[in-house]
Amino acid sequence: MILIAMTSLMARQATRARDPVPPGVVAWQGSGRPTAHDGASTIDRMLRITNPATGDLVGELESTSLEGIGLMVHRARQAQRSWAAIPLEERARLVASAGPAMKERSGAIGELITREMGKPIAEAKGEANYAASGLEDACAEIVAALRPQTLEDERTVTTMLYAPLGVAVCITPWNFPVLMCSDTVVPALLAGNTVILKPSELSTLCALEWAKCLMAVLPPDVLQVAIGDEVQGKALVAAPIDLIAFTGSRSAGRHIMQAAAGGLKRLILELGGKDPLVVLPDADVDAAAAFAARNSFRNAGQVCVSTERIYVHDSIAPAFTKAVIDRAQQLVVGDGMQAGTQIGPMVNARQKEHVLAQVSLAKATGATVECGGDGGGNFVKPVVLTGVTHEMPIMQEETFGPVACIMTYREIDEAVRLANDSPYGLGGAVFGRDEERAREVAERLHIGMVGVNQGCGGASGSPWVGARQSGYGHHSGTSGHRQFAQVRVISRPKPKPASAV
Ligand code: NAD
Questions:
Q1: Average pLDDT value for the chain
Q2: Looking at the domain assignment, is residue 3 inside a domain?
Q3: Active site positions, annotated
C-alpha cells in the first residue's frame, strides 16, 4: 500500500512537472504499470476529464496500457488464492473497515462526482455518503448470503458452498459513478474473488477516490483500478479472467456477451432501460404527475430506471399532462455546483445531441414539444412531449435525458400491450388508487422491477434485476450476491440414527 501511495505521489509530481495542472484539478497516474504506452489504445495516453457544466479540466490520468492490463490480471490471479483463504467473515470485516474513510471523504468524492458528470452537489454527496454508510450493512447481508447452507433428506446430507470464481472484472458507467462500483465490487470481493475495477472514462476520478479507501485496507492487488475507456474494457473482457460484472448500455453488453462466449466466462450484465409508467383512470393525478416529473428529470434523465414512456388514461390525461408541464417548467437547470440547481448538464455534448435528435425526430413526425429543449452548453431544459406514437425512436430506444413522453390510452389491455412493446424490461411503475388492481397490472408487465404508486426499487434485500434485454444475471439481494460465487454441492450419506445401527 505504501508503495502504491509513493508511486502515485511520484507520478503526480512527475505529471505536474510535465504539464502544469491548475489548482483544484486532480492529476493521477493509472495503476496499470508499466507506464510505457503501447500505442494500441485509441485514447490519448492521458485521459482528460472535463466538467460538463463548464468545460473546465477536472483532472487527467494516465490510461492503463494493454500491457498494463495483462500485468494487472496476472497480479490479481497471484493474489486471489491468499485472499480466498481468509475466512468470509474476516474478508467482510476488512472491506467494511473502509467505511469510515469513505464517509470522511464523501464530501470530496461528492464534489468530484459533480465536477466529472454534472449532477447537483447535494445528490452527489448523498450518493457518496450512501455508499459509505451502507457498506457495513451491505457486507453483513452478503455474508449471510454466502454462508454455507445445509440440506438433508432421508439419505443424504448436502452442504452448499459459495466458493470464489477467481478474478472478477467490474466495468461501471458514469451516471451513478460510485454506487455502481460499490454494487458489484463489494460482493465480488466478499465472495473471495480479486477484482479489477474499470470505471467509466467520464467519471474515473471519483471512482478512484472511492476505490482508494478500499485499497488502503486490503492486501496488495486484491483490488486494482484500470484507467481508460472501452479499449481497456475490451482488453479486460478478453483477458483470462473468470467473471465480468458489467453495468452499462445494451450495445456494450451485447458486445461483452459475444466476447465472453469464447471462454464461457461468467457474466452479470445490468443494462439500459426504457421504463414505462402506467397511470390508471383512478390514479391520484397529483401524485402520479409528481412521480412522473421526478423520475423523468432527476439526474437530467440519466438514470437507468428513469421513466421514459408514460401511458395515461385519456379521462385524466389533460390534468396529468398540465401537472407534469408545470413541474418541468419550475425545475432549475444549471451547474450542479451552484446552490439551488435541480437539474445539471448532460454528461457530454454527444449525449445532449442524442437526446435533442430524438426530440426533433419526434416533433418532425407529429409529436408536440410542450416545453423545454436546448438550454445552451451541455444543458437540456426538461422536455414534455405529447402526441407521441410507438413508431417514433423516442418510444423505442433509450433516451437517457430529461424527456417525459406522454401517450394516452382507453383500455387497460392497450396500456399493458404498449408498455410491453419494448426489448427492454428494467423498471416501471403503475399508479392507481385501487392498489390491488394496480398490482395486477404491474404483474402483467414483462419487467424486472415494478413499483405500485412508487418507484421500482424494492425493500432492502431485494435484487436489482432487469428482464428481457435489460439484464442477464443480476446483483443485490441473496440471489444477486450469490452470482459472484460458484455454488458447490458436497454430499455425504446421512448418518443412521443410533437405534437403527
Ligand atoms: P457504456 O456501455 O457506454 O459504458 C459503460 C462502461 O463500459 C464504461 O466503463 C465503458 O468504458 C465500458 N465499455 C464500453 N464499451 C465496452 C465494451 N465493448 N467492452 C468493455 N467495456 C466497454 O454506458 P454508459 O454510457 O457509461 O452508461 C449509461 C448506460 O448504462 C445506460 O444504458 C444505462 O441505462 C446503463 N445503466 C444501467 C444500470 C442498471 O443497473 N441496469 C445502471 C446504470 C446505468
A1: 92
A2: no
A3: 270, 304
Give CA–CA dist 340/9, Å, rounded.
36
Q: Which domain holds residue 322?
A: 275-423+427-452
Residue 242 lies in a domain: yes
pLDDT higher than threshold 70 for residue 32: no
Torsion of CA 255, 257, 260, 262, to 10 degrees: -100
Residue nearest to atom 35 of ligand 1 (CA): 248
Do 378 and 352 touch, CB atoms closer than 8 A? yes
Tell the residue nearest (CA) to atom 22 of ligand 1: 230
Helix or strand (DSSP H, E) at 312: strand 307-313
190-226 tens-digit pLDDT: 999 999 999 999 999 999 999 999 999 999 999 999 9
Question: Distance between CA 420 and CA 430 in Å, rounded?
Answer: 13
Instruction: Please name the amino acid found at residue 75.
Output: R
Domain co-membership, 360 together with 406: yes
Q: For residue 214, how far is its CA from the centre of ligand 1 (angstroms)? A: 23
On whether both 263 and 286 belong to a single domain, the answer is no
Both 142 and 123 in one domain: the answer is yes
Please indicate, yes or no, whether residues 164 and 268 belong to a single structural domain of this protein.
Answer: yes
Mean pLDDT of all residues in 18-26: 39
Quick one: CA dihedral 463, 235, 41, 354, positive or negative?
negative
From 247, 258, 274, the mutation candidate for ligand 1 (largest count of ligand atoms within 8 A of CB) is 247
| Ligand 1 cavity residues, CB under 6 Å | 171-176, 180, 198, 200-201, 229-230, 233-234, 237, 247-249, 252, 255-256, 270-273, 304, 398, 400, 426, 464, 466
* CATH number where 281 lies: 3.40.309.10
Note whether residue 463 is domain-resident: no
- Overall domain count for the chain: 2
Residue 317 lies in a domain: yes
The three-state DSSP-derived secondary structure of 163-222 is: EECCEEEEECCCCCCCHHHHHHHHHHHHCCCEEEEECCCCCHHHHHHHHHHHHCCCCCCC
CA of 259 to the centre of ligand 1 (A): 15
How far is the C-alpha of 174 from the C-alpha of 20, rounded, in Å?
Answer: 27
